[in-house]
Specification:
single chain; Transpos_ISL3; Transposase_DDE; Transposase
Length: 243
Protein backbone atom coordinates (compact mmCIF):
# COMPACT_ATOMS: atom_id res chain seq x y z
CA UNK A 1 0.00 0.00 0.00
CA UNK A 2 1.13 3.55 -0.80
CA UNK A 3 0.28 6.34 1.65
CA UNK A 4 0.34 9.50 -0.48
CA UNK A 5 -0.33 13.05 0.74
CA UNK A 6 -1.53 15.46 -1.98
CA UNK A 7 -3.01 18.92 -2.02
CA UNK A 8 -6.65 19.67 -2.77
CA UNK A 9 -7.67 22.86 -4.55
CA UNK A 10 -11.05 24.58 -4.59
CA UNK A 11 -12.45 26.47 -7.56
CA UNK A 12 -13.80 29.93 -6.72
CA UNK A 13 -15.95 30.18 -9.85
CA UNK A 14 -19.64 29.52 -9.33
CA UNK A 15 -20.10 28.28 -12.89
CA UNK A 16 -17.47 25.55 -12.62
CA UNK A 17 -19.08 22.09 -12.39
CA UNK A 18 -16.13 20.75 -10.37
CA UNK A 19 -15.90 22.03 -6.83
CA UNK A 20 -12.50 20.73 -5.82
CA UNK A 21 -9.38 19.51 -7.61
CA UNK A 22 -6.90 17.00 -6.24
CA UNK A 23 -3.23 17.23 -7.09
CA UNK A 24 -2.04 14.43 -9.41
CA UNK A 25 1.37 12.76 -9.38
CA UNK A 26 2.51 12.11 -12.98
CA UNK A 27 3.03 8.42 -13.65
CA UNK A 28 1.41 7.34 -10.40
CA UNK A 29 -2.13 8.73 -10.14
CA UNK A 30 -4.91 9.89 -12.45
CA UNK A 31 -8.38 11.38 -11.82
CA UNK A 32 -10.97 8.95 -10.42
CA UNK A 33 -8.38 6.19 -10.48
CA UNK A 34 -8.25 3.38 -7.95
CA UNK A 35 -5.17 1.69 -9.39
CA UNK A 36 -1.77 2.89 -10.47
CA UNK A 37 -0.66 2.80 -14.13
CA UNK A 38 1.98 0.27 -13.12
CA UNK A 39 -0.73 -2.30 -12.45
CA UNK A 40 -2.40 -1.44 -15.72
CA UNK A 41 0.66 -1.62 -17.95
CA UNK A 42 3.08 -4.07 -16.34
CA UNK A 43 0.50 -6.57 -15.16
CA UNK A 44 -2.45 -6.44 -17.52
CA UNK A 45 -0.61 -5.76 -20.77
CA UNK A 46 2.48 -7.86 -20.15
CA UNK A 47 0.90 -10.94 -18.55
CA UNK A 48 -2.73 -10.90 -19.77
CA UNK A 49 -5.69 -11.56 -17.51
CA UNK A 50 -5.34 -14.83 -15.57
CA UNK A 51 -1.53 -14.82 -15.02
CA UNK A 52 -1.63 -11.14 -14.01
CA UNK A 53 -4.44 -11.82 -11.52
CA UNK A 54 -2.46 -14.69 -9.94
CA UNK A 55 0.69 -12.59 -9.64
CA UNK A 56 -1.21 -9.60 -8.22
CA UNK A 57 -2.79 -11.85 -5.60
CA UNK A 58 0.65 -13.09 -4.52
CA UNK A 59 1.91 -9.49 -4.26
CA UNK A 60 -0.99 -8.51 -2.03
CA UNK A 61 -2.95 -6.56 -4.64
CA UNK A 62 -5.94 -8.80 -5.38
CA UNK A 63 -7.69 -7.91 -8.60
CA UNK A 64 -10.08 -9.86 -10.83
CA UNK A 65 -9.13 -10.98 -14.31
CA UNK A 66 -12.18 -9.20 -15.78
CA UNK A 67 -10.97 -5.95 -14.28
CA UNK A 68 -7.58 -6.42 -15.92
CA UNK A 69 -9.28 -7.05 -19.25
CA UNK A 70 -11.23 -3.82 -18.89
CA UNK A 71 -7.99 -1.97 -18.15
CA UNK A 72 -6.42 -3.35 -21.31
CA UNK A 73 -9.44 -2.46 -23.45
CA UNK A 74 -9.46 1.06 -22.03
CA UNK A 75 -5.97 1.75 -23.35
CA UNK A 76 -5.83 3.88 -26.50
CA UNK A 77 -4.86 2.15 -29.71
CA UNK A 78 -1.26 2.74 -30.80
CA UNK A 79 -0.87 4.93 -33.90
CA UNK A 80 -0.66 2.99 -37.15
CA UNK A 81 2.18 5.04 -38.57
CA UNK A 82 3.43 4.41 -42.09
CA UNK A 83 2.34 1.13 -43.63
CA UNK A 84 3.87 -0.28 -46.82
CA UNK A 85 2.22 -3.70 -47.19
CA UNK A 86 -1.41 -4.08 -46.16
CA UNK A 87 -3.88 -6.94 -46.26
CA UNK A 88 -7.57 -6.29 -46.84
CA UNK A 89 -10.23 -8.88 -46.00
CA UNK A 90 -13.77 -9.08 -44.71
CA UNK A 91 -15.19 -10.79 -41.63
CA UNK A 92 -18.69 -11.38 -40.32
CA UNK A 93 -20.04 -9.49 -37.35
CA UNK A 94 -23.28 -11.39 -37.87
CA UNK A 95 -23.03 -14.19 -40.38
CA UNK A 96 -24.90 -13.52 -43.64
CA UNK A 97 -26.21 -10.23 -42.30
CA UNK A 98 -23.53 -7.78 -41.09
CA UNK A 99 -19.96 -7.68 -42.41
CA UNK A 100 -16.95 -5.44 -41.89
CA UNK A 101 -13.52 -4.95 -43.45
CA UNK A 102 -10.24 -5.28 -41.59
CA UNK A 103 -6.96 -3.79 -42.79
CA UNK A 104 -3.80 -5.41 -41.42
CA UNK A 105 -0.18 -4.30 -41.59
CA UNK A 106 1.44 -7.47 -42.95
CA UNK A 107 4.93 -6.44 -41.81
CA UNK A 108 4.02 -6.08 -38.15
CA UNK A 109 1.00 -8.47 -38.38
CA UNK A 110 -1.20 -6.00 -36.51
CA UNK A 111 -4.63 -4.66 -37.50
CA UNK A 112 -4.57 -0.95 -38.24
CA UNK A 113 -8.19 -0.21 -39.17
CA UNK A 114 -11.68 -1.73 -39.11
CA UNK A 115 -14.20 -0.31 -41.60
CA UNK A 116 -17.91 -1.00 -41.55
CA UNK A 117 -19.26 -2.85 -44.56
CA UNK A 118 -17.53 -4.16 -47.66
CA UNK A 119 -18.11 -1.22 -50.00
CA UNK A 120 -15.31 0.18 -52.14
CA UNK A 121 -15.84 3.84 -51.18
CA UNK A 122 -14.72 3.88 -47.52
CA UNK A 123 -11.83 1.52 -48.23
CA UNK A 124 -10.61 3.65 -51.13
CA UNK A 125 -10.80 6.76 -48.92
CA UNK A 126 -8.65 5.10 -46.26
CA UNK A 127 -6.10 3.91 -48.82
CA UNK A 128 -5.93 7.39 -50.33
CA UNK A 129 -4.93 8.75 -46.93
CA UNK A 130 -1.86 6.51 -46.92
CA UNK A 131 0.12 7.23 -50.09
CA UNK A 132 3.09 5.26 -48.77
CA UNK A 133 1.33 1.92 -49.43
CA UNK A 134 3.25 -0.18 -51.95
CA UNK A 135 1.44 -3.56 -51.90
CA UNK A 136 -2.23 -4.38 -51.32
CA UNK A 137 -2.93 -8.04 -50.57
CA UNK A 138 -6.60 -8.89 -51.05
CA UNK A 139 -9.03 -11.55 -52.12
CA UNK A 140 -10.54 -11.64 -55.60
CA UNK A 141 -13.61 -9.60 -54.71
CA UNK A 142 -14.63 -6.87 -57.14
CA UNK A 143 -15.21 -4.24 -54.44
CA UNK A 144 -11.70 -4.56 -52.99
CA UNK A 145 -10.16 -4.47 -56.47
CA UNK A 146 -11.98 -1.22 -57.26
CA UNK A 147 -11.00 0.26 -53.90
CA UNK A 148 -7.33 -0.56 -54.47
CA UNK A 149 -7.36 0.94 -57.98
CA UNK A 150 -9.10 4.11 -56.83
CA UNK A 151 -7.41 4.66 -53.46
CA UNK A 152 -3.90 3.32 -54.10
CA UNK A 153 -3.16 3.34 -57.84
CA UNK A 154 0.57 3.29 -57.13
CA UNK A 155 0.33 0.03 -55.16
CA UNK A 156 0.72 -3.44 -56.59
CA UNK A 157 -2.24 -5.75 -56.03
CA UNK A 158 -1.57 -9.37 -55.11
CA UNK A 159 -3.80 -12.27 -54.10
CA UNK A 160 -3.24 -13.83 -50.70
CA UNK A 161 -2.15 -17.44 -50.35
CA UNK A 162 -5.31 -18.80 -48.76
CA UNK A 163 -7.60 -17.58 -51.54
CA UNK A 164 -5.20 -18.91 -54.19
CA UNK A 165 -5.31 -22.41 -52.68
CA UNK A 166 -9.07 -22.15 -52.16
CA UNK A 167 -9.71 -21.17 -55.78
CA UNK A 168 -7.39 -23.93 -57.00
CA UNK A 169 -9.23 -26.55 -54.95
CA UNK A 170 -12.59 -25.36 -56.28
CA UNK A 171 -11.33 -25.52 -59.88
CA UNK A 172 -9.95 -29.05 -59.41
CA UNK A 173 -13.16 -30.21 -57.76
CA UNK A 174 -15.30 -28.85 -60.61
CA UNK A 175 -13.02 -30.46 -63.22
CA UNK A 176 -13.10 -33.86 -61.53
CA UNK A 177 -16.88 -33.70 -61.15
CA UNK A 178 -17.30 -32.82 -64.84
CA UNK A 179 -15.14 -35.79 -65.97
CA UNK A 180 -16.36 -38.34 -63.44
CA UNK A 181 -17.42 -40.86 -66.09
CA UNK A 182 -14.07 -40.58 -67.90
CA UNK A 183 -12.18 -41.27 -64.66
CA UNK A 184 -14.33 -44.32 -63.90
CA UNK A 185 -13.70 -45.70 -67.40
CA UNK A 186 -9.94 -45.18 -67.05
CA UNK A 187 -9.84 -47.03 -63.74
CA UNK A 188 -11.96 -49.86 -65.16
CA UNK A 189 -9.46 -50.37 -68.02
CA UNK A 190 -6.43 -50.15 -65.75
CA UNK A 191 -7.78 -52.68 -63.21
CA UNK A 192 -6.84 -56.30 -64.09
CA UNK A 193 -9.63 -58.89 -64.34
CA UNK A 194 -10.38 -61.32 -61.54
CA UNK A 195 -8.81 -64.28 -63.35
CA UNK A 196 -5.49 -62.46 -63.70
CA UNK A 197 -5.52 -61.63 -60.02
CA UNK A 198 -6.03 -65.32 -59.16
CA UNK A 199 -3.16 -66.40 -61.38
CA UNK A 200 -0.93 -63.78 -59.79
CA UNK A 201 -1.73 -65.06 -56.31
CA UNK A 202 -0.98 -68.65 -57.38
CA UNK A 203 2.39 -67.60 -58.78
CA UNK A 204 3.26 -65.75 -55.58
CA UNK A 205 2.40 -68.81 -53.47
CA UNK A 206 4.51 -71.07 -55.70
CA UNK A 207 7.46 -68.71 -55.48
CA UNK A 208 7.14 -68.58 -51.70
CA UNK A 209 7.09 -72.37 -51.43
CA UNK A 210 10.18 -72.73 -53.65
CA UNK A 211 12.05 -70.14 -51.56
CA UNK A 212 11.31 -72.11 -48.41
CA UNK A 213 8.57 -69.89 -46.98
CA UNK A 214 5.32 -71.35 -45.88
CA UNK A 215 2.54 -70.36 -48.28
CA UNK A 216 -0.57 -68.73 -46.97
CA UNK A 217 -2.76 -71.65 -48.15
CA UNK A 218 -1.50 -75.19 -48.89
CA UNK A 219 -1.26 -76.03 -52.58
CA UNK A 220 -2.72 -79.34 -53.85
CA UNK A 221 -0.15 -82.12 -54.41
CA UNK A 222 1.06 -82.51 -57.98
CA UNK A 223 2.18 -85.57 -59.96
CA UNK A 224 5.88 -84.71 -59.75
CA UNK A 225 5.86 -83.98 -56.01
CA UNK A 226 4.83 -87.05 -54.01
CA UNK A 227 2.60 -86.63 -51.01
CA UNK A 228 4.03 -87.06 -47.52
CA UNK A 229 1.49 -89.70 -46.66
CA UNK A 230 2.50 -91.84 -49.68
CA UNK A 231 6.17 -91.91 -48.66
CA UNK A 232 5.56 -93.25 -45.13
CA UNK A 233 4.62 -96.84 -46.10
CA UNK A 234 7.82 -97.18 -48.19
CA UNK A 235 9.98 -96.17 -45.22
CA UNK A 236 8.21 -98.66 -42.96
CA UNK A 237 8.70 -101.51 -45.47
CA UNK A 238 12.46 -100.80 -45.67
CA UNK A 239 12.74 -100.81 -41.94
CA UNK A 240 10.90 -104.12 -41.66
CA UNK A 241 13.14 -105.69 -44.30
CA UNK A 242 16.24 -104.60 -42.41
CA UNK A 243 14.97 -106.19 -39.28
Amino acid sequence: MIDLLVRRFKCVSDTCPAVTFAEQVPGLTHPHGRRTPVLQHRFAVALAARPAARLARRLGVPVAKDTLLRLVRALPDPPAGDVRIVGVDDFALRRRHVYATIIVDLQTRRPVEVIEGRDAGPIAAWLAGHPEIEVVCRDRGRAYAEAARAGAPQAQQVADRWHLWHNLCEAVEKTVAAHHSCIEAAFAVAEPPVECQRRYRCRMRTAASVAGHAPSSPAPPSATTPCRNSSRPAVRSKASAAT
